[in-house]
Amino acid sequence: MTTSTPPSAPIRVVVFDLGKVVLDFDYAIAVRRFLPRTRVSLHTVNEALNGSPLLLAYERGELSTAAFFAEVQRLTGFDGSLAEFETVFGDIFTEITPMTALVPRLKAAGLVTAALSNTNDMAIRHIARTYSFYALLDHQVLSFEHGSMKPEPRLYEVLEARTNSRGPEIFYLDDREENVVAARERGWRAFVHQAPEESIRTMATHGLPVA
Ligand SMILES: [Mg+2]
Question: How far is the centre of ligand 1, averaged over its atoms, from the C-alpha of 192 (Å)?
Answer without folding.
Answer: 10
